[in-house]
Every structure is written in structure tokens, then in C-alpha cells.
Amino acid sequence: MFDLDKLDKTIHERGRLGIMTLLAARSPWTFQDLKAELKMSDGNLVTHLRTLHQAGLVAVTREVFDRPQTTYALTARGKKAFQEYLAVLEQIVRASRG
Predict the structure, then answer these.
(1) Cα–Cα distance measured from residue 70 to residue 92, given in angstroms and rounded to the nearest whole number
(2) What is the pLDDT of residues 79-93, one digit of tens each?
(3) Which whole-number Å values give the CA distances from 55 to 3, 24, 67, 69, 77, in the listed order?
(4) Of 37, 56, 65, 92, which has the maximum CB count within 10 A?
């Protein structure tokens, strides 16, 4: 059986799950690319990224080229947390097919 309490509540929220999924597939992503891909407002995206960053799941890099650019990538802790999250989801799927 599975334990829903094992689902990481920080990742599980829809917007943060989208961010984590994109960052797990390809890193880094710029703020503007994440915004376009996820179709989020600036404020909504900033809030979710801040939550993930404060949890130690996402690293933030700020650079200045022609203009400032902020990129995001999963930290080692973020990669591990996302893999664990996916493992719980896989348990749920297996149990529902059981």
C-alpha cells in the first residue's frame, strides 16, 4: 500500500510540480522561459520559485549580460526530493491498477 503523507507537500502543489518537472528534464531554465512554458504570471512564478528555493530544492543564479538574467536549476537535494516524490506517485499508480 502507499502512504499519501509521503508526498512532498512543497513539490505537490500544481505550479511547483510544473517547475520541478521542467527543471528535472532540463536545467537550467531562465525565468522568462519558465514563465512562458508554464503560462504563469510573474508574481505567481516568483512565489513558487521562492518557496522551492527556501526549501533548498532550487538554486538561483543571477547574471548580467546585455541585461540581468536569472536562471534556475535543481539542487542535489531537489533532484533527490523529486525522485522520491515520483517514487510515491509510482506506488499510487501501481496500487490503483492492482
Answers:
(1) 36
(2) 999 999 999 999 988
(3) 22, 16, 28, 22, 9
(4) 92
